[in-house]
Amino acid sequence: MQTVTSVDDLIKEPVTKKRKYACDSEDCNATFKRLSHLNGHKRTHSDERPYACDFEDCNAAFKRRDALNAHKRNHINERPYACDFEDCNATFKILCTLNDHKRTHSVERPYACDFEDCNAAFKLLNILNVHKLTHSDERPYVCDFEDCNAAFKRRNAFDSHKRTHSDERPYVCDFEDCNAAFKQSSSLTKHKRIHTGEQPYVCDFEDCNTAFKQSSSLITHKRTHSGELPYKCGDEHCTQQFASSGTRNTHFKRWHTEEGIRRHRLQEERIEKLFIANEIPYTREVHISYSCFDSSNKHRAKLDFVVPTDRAVFIVEIDEHSHDNTWDYTVSCEQAKMSYVETALTICADPSVGRQPTVWLRYNPDTFKIDGKTVRTFKKDREEVLLRFLRNYVPTRPMTIMYLYYGCHSGPNGEWAQPTVLDDEDYSDEMKQFVEIVTQSTVAQLVATPLIDK
Description:
The chain has 14 helices and 25 strands.
């Protein structure tokens, strides 16, 4: 077995010779042992790319021949440089990448940052140089495309960015019958895991072995254990925070942009037309004010539709995306709103008659998930079921909460079961006792029952 004590054990450095060829570009002190190396280096100061790829439909060109040779291996998947460490089968297309990889087998970190109060150390010199840029605001690589002022600290980030202005996709998937191509090598690496099923990023929290294909997914997942919510909404009137930037952006688009608000109103208008066409009596947008259980702040909210019947008062809420973690209220606020309305109905009821039961019918008009897998049904089928609930459902208690087409766990036979919204730790046990689980059997029975209200 190979014993590693230093970087010298991994990579043999050549005997130092005098570097007699110096670059004459301004502010460049680079020197070289060979004239050919100097000539190659000088191209880094220009846009000259004399080495062009001759593969069909490939327009890639490079400043150095070795870069062209490395690129060509993307077309043929040649990986001639193999790691010789025991139990390591890693192979690489270029020698320098192999040398960098070999240092991962050593614990030595010879390249230390010399900035004050910084103890960071690295296995590779180029990683140290990249790290040092974090101590500076300098961004020397500036995009020269029209109307683009993007600037970068690293050359590779700059090169990747420039591809966003072009159609160049030099990183090609080599799996059979897959022609996917990408602008960045990291995107290709992530894509290949679709073919291999590899999930290299594993959660290290106790009793959690969840694994992911991308490191970003693992980071977001770990926040479910820590409770960290680093991403704020961005709207000055919204206090929502999120575990990932993607979830925050989705929330903002749905609830704080004209497009999102318009989309939600279109969903409500579709249901209103459904009620009118089927002669369902309703009151739209009943506004209330209330305080959340965990806050003294006052909130205003609206009940989308209030539908009175002889059997109950149905409060129909059109909840797009079934209250996933981008919705605009916390569970605490939702419970407070329900309690406020229930109290008001009780106080205002005629004592000689008593109050009617209320049914909070939370209806999701979009796709939903069972055990995380997306389920799609036709809108007309969903709406028929909604009508059946309003015309046939007879509550057995003063208050009932029902989630229709919400994300849920599956039951023993794979059908709908408990809504995932009940997994929220803020959903109180007192409120859970009012929830009636809507199953596929419930829906089938309602559809088969003759209409009570015509």
